[in-house]
Design brief:
Structural class: mainly beta
Order of helices and strands: EEEEEEEHEHEEHEEEEEHEHEEEEE
Distance between the termini: 61 Å
Number of strands: 21
Number of helices: 5
Length: 317
């Protein structure tokens, strides 16, 4: 059994330790800035107002976050407490960045402006851009840094339980034993996939610029969409187009595994395993992890996405 301890801190500084939760779920996914914690336990007395949650696995901190909600239910003399928290990335998600257009920024400069004031550390690689970068109205502090980093690296930033911004390296591997696989789902999703984007740039009246995926075209995908990108700098237009194309097709091939036990994995980790039914599986990466403790014990659900190359081309017509 996984050695899990949860420490809850109250607004008055009091700490409550939960060693035997009734249920617990830890979830993370590449499409969400924040990891999440859902916890249920029996309380010995009414709880004070709680503000933070820390999860330790074998003494190592694997989650730190802030409570969104606590709920206590009394049945006779027994109190059942439910706690919901998001990881510390929620601080950057819940604060809006000042709109501004930066000239030749770096990831370090954007961190200094949008994350350091909240006490976060920087472990991002040295990323630079020799063009303008626009932070638009309504962008969160997380989005101000992440859109820049994602546009250059193709990966979303994460925030460690220690409060440091970093970029998953996508190295290593996830060892899976076929005997531990309880359920496996494989999906091909063609609906919503877009093979071509028609777009405008500054001065255009018509959507005469285009980007398309030759691979999706060969696969018989015929849907398209139109975007007006006249307000964006050139490199940001390229990033927006590629992200729209890739995001629409990111779940084109997906595998979902339910595995016995609690297995902790970094997002973007490459996955190769031998399926009891589908044979050898490779070329996938970890897109989401959901670790759950309930009446059935510890289980881990992995969402795996196929690494794809869409062979995109740009043209004017």
């Amino acid at each position: 059994m996984a050695e899990i301890t949860v420490q809850l801190t109250a607004i008055d500084g009091k700490m409550i330790t939960v060693n035997n939760p009734l249920s617990l779920t830890l979830a993370s996914e590449t499409a969400a800035a924040c990891d999440s914690l859902s916890l249920r336990f029996t309380a010995e007395a009414p709880l004070p107002e709680l503000i933070t949650a820390t999860v330790l696995h074998a003494g190592v901190k694997i989650f730190f976050g802030y409570l969104d909600m606590q709920r206590e239910t009394a049945n006779g003399n027994s109190i059942t407490a439910d706690v919901y928290a998001r990881s510390s990335a929620c601080v950057l998600v819940d604060n809006e960045a000042e709109p501004f257009t930066y000239l030749s920024p770096s990831a370090e400069a954007l961190y200094v402006l949008h994350a350091r004031p909240f006490g976060f550390e920087n472990r991002l690689p040295a990323l630079y851009c020799e063009a303008d970068y626009a932070v638009e109205k309504g962008t969160s502090c997380y989005g101000a840094v992440n859109r820049f980093v994602y546009g250059i690296s193709g990966k979303s930033i994460r925030i460690s339980p220690e409060g440091a911004l970093y970029l998953p390296d996508g190295k290593g591997s996830l060892p899976l034993d076929k005997k531990d696989i309880l359920r496996e789902i494989r999906t091909v999703s063609r609906g919503g996939v877009c093979h071509r984007i028609d777009y405008k740039t500054e001065g255009d009246r018509q959507y005469r610029h285009h980007i398309k995926s030759r691979r999706l075209e060969r696969l018989g995908i015929q849907s398209s969409k139109k975007l007006n990108l006249a307000s964006l700098p050139a490199w940001q237009r390229a990033f927006t187009l590629k992200r729209q194309l890739y995001d629409a097709a990111r779940e084109y091939r997906k595998a979902e595994l339910l595995v016995s036990g609690a297995i902790f994995s970094e997002l973007y980790t490459p996955v190769t395993y031998l399926s009891p039914v589908f044979g050898s599986i490779d070329g996938y990466y970890v897109d989401g992890v959901r670790i759950t403790l309930d009446g059935n014990g510890w289980r881990t659900q992995f969402t795996l996405l196929k690494q794809q190359e869409w062979e995109e081309i740009n043209y004017v017509a």
